[in-house]
Amino acid sequence: MNAFGFYEPTSVRKAVSIAADHSDGKYVAGGQTLLAAMKLGLAAPSDLIDLGKIPELATIAYDKASASIVIGAMARHADVAGAGEVASRIPALAHLAGLIGDGQVRNRGTLGGSIANNDPASDYPAAVLALAATIITDQRKIPADEFFKGLFETALKPHELITAVSFPVPKRAAYMKFRNPASRFAMVGVFVAQSAAGVRVAVTGAGSRGVSRVKAMEDALAKNWSPDAVKAIAVPAADLQSDIHASAEYRAHLITVMAQRAVAAA
């Protein structure tokens, strides 16, 4: 691991200011991905800007005006899983957070770090996309459909900082995941949600370009919210990834199975 500078700002303004002065610096949230990459020599930032001492980034609250749960970027997975506001209004989101990694990971990893990294097998992107969440940064608000751009790629500009994510409360929703038994990452995860704006189905862990929506399932569920509505819908394997854990064809099969289970759970 290379030598690096280390900063612990106590406000978003200070964090952004430090980042502006250090073009090769990186924000660090839970450090679950960045620190591992640094140890392997895959990342060598000149400076680390630790966000752990910015209280405003760790809040979880219900916003009555927008009927949304607003979760700070530094809220840890365990915080989301255990928050009463989340469990009572979007239980599917609390359930998803409780499935991430193990206890150590859930007590270190953060919402903001997860979606900023946009790992194709991570869980949160499916919730963000299916719930039509809004990503709030120090500069703007980004709709979920515009945020995820591809494998480990997002709409974030250099040193743009996620401060919170706003999740509209759905009529009903559920998340089902077929996880890798070792890493507990999603080999396939399907989040389904129904709201006044319609039905959304998001899949993580399977696509060659990361999280994506399945329009055919959304259309079918809009007409008939039932596991049977998606039973015969097959996602093309050509759009999915194959690796040592599962073939694209197997992942295609799992998407349909997990979708049925999610609809039943919701």
Describe this protein's structure.
The model has no long low-confidence stretch (mean pLDDT 95). The protein has a five-stranded antiparallel sheet with strand order 4-5-10-6-7. A four-stranded antiparallel sheet has the order 11-12-13-14, with helices on both faces. It contains twelve helices and 14 strands. It is globular, with a radius of gyration of 18 Å. Among the domains are: 1-53, Uridine Diphospho-n-acetylenolpyruvylglucosamine Reductase, domain 2; 172-265, 2-Layer Sandwich (Enolase-like, domain 1). A hairpin with a 6-residue loop joins strand 11 (172-179) and strand 12 (186-195). It has 266 residues and is an alpha+beta fold.
CATH architecture of one domain: 2-Layer Sandwich
> What average pLDDT do the residues reach?
95
Strand tally, please? 14
Strand order of the largest sheet: 4-5-10-6-7
Portion in strands: 15-25%
Number of helices: 12
Q: State the end-to-end distance.
A: 46 Å
CATH topology of one domain: Enolase-like, domain 1
CATH superfamily of one domain: CO dehydrogenase flavoprotein, C-terminal domain
- Biggest pleated-sheet summary: 5 strands, antiparallel
CATH class of one domain: Alpha Beta
Q: What class do helices, strands and sheet pairing give? A: alpha+beta
Helix content: 25-40%
Indicate the radius of gyration in whole angstroms. 18 Å
Uncertain residue segments: none
